[in-house]
């Protein structure tokens, strides 16, 4: 974890992923939160709703958690009689974020650059936004923070809506992400819409399987 000249902390991609997964699972599986190390590793390595997809080992996630706890981003909780430590994020407290702002930031942390419309579509299970304007209001709040947590990018050639990206990894990391996204191009037209709908359906099924797997793992640990 580095610090910029203006005093802002810069997180690495693994720290960002761990924090985002904790925030996501807090909303999606509250009965299974705080998360055990095993459930957190599974969440970090999900194939759905993740960009980029990662393959983190248990040892790597444990090291990341230690750094995040030292810098007050995460709490480790050991309940009486339990052998497994569980972990919860402190982003809501650290940056004074209500759930709508936290949901927007979490989606950007998990899935990279997105438009306000894409964020609204993807954040439904974290927070139900009534309109794109509500998403834009939450984004502006995150942009206006000091130091800012989110940046609004210039319109890319051939696009009608601006994209947004999180700044937790620093401006250089965001610039690299923007360059990679522009080189990757996009799928347009009706075929792209159908593919997108199918991808969303598959992603939802995968999320349900991941959530059930994590819940079963925690249930099984109670009897070990």
From TrEMBL:
<comment type="similarity">
    <text>Belongs to the UPF0502 family.</text>
</comment>
<dbReference type="InterPro" id="IPR036390">
    <property type="entry name" value="WH_DNA-bd_sf"/>
</dbReference>
<keyword id="KW-0175">Coiled coil</keyword>
<feature type="coiled-coil region">
    <location>
        <begin position="195"/>
        <end position="222"/>
    </location>
</feature>
<dbReference type="InterPro" id="IPR036388">
    <property type="entry name" value="WH-like_DNA-bd_sf"/>
</dbReference>
<protein>
    <submittedName>
        <fullName>DUF480 domain-containing protein</fullName>
    </submittedName>
</protein>
<dbReference type="Pfam" id="PF04337">
    <property type="entry name" value="DUF480"/>
</dbReference>
<dbReference type="InterPro" id="IPR007432">
    <property type="entry name" value="DUF480"/>
</dbReference>
């Amino acid at each position: 974890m580095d610090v910029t000249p203006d005093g802002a902390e810069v997180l690495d991609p693994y720290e960002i992923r761990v924090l985002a997964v904790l925030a996501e699972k807090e909303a999606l599986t509250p009965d299974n939160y705080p998360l055990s190390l095993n459930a957190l590793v599974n969440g970090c390595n999900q194939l759905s709703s993740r960009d980029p997809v990662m393959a983190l080992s248990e040892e790597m996630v444990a090291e990341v958690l230690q750094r995040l706890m030292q810098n007050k981003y995460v709490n480790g909780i050991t309940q009486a009689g339990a052998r497994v430590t569980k972990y919860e994020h402190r982003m809501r407290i650290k940056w004074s974020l209500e759930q709508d702002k936290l949901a927007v930031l979490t989606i950007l942390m998990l899935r990279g650059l997105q438009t306000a419309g894409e964020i609204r579509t993807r954040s439904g299970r974290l927070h139900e936004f009534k309109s794109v304007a509500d998403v834009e209001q939450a984004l502006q709040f995150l942009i206006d923070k000091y130091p800012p947590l989110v940046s609004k990018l210039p319109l890319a050639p051939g696009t009608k809506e601006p994209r947004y990206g999180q700044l937790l990894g620093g401006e250089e990391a965001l610039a690299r992400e923007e360059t990679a996204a522009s080189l990757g191009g996009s799928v347009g037209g009706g075929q792209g819409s159908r593919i997108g709908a199918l991808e969303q359906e598959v992603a939802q099924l995968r999320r349900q399987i991941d959530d059930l797997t994590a819940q079963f793992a925690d249930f099984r640990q109670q009897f070990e």
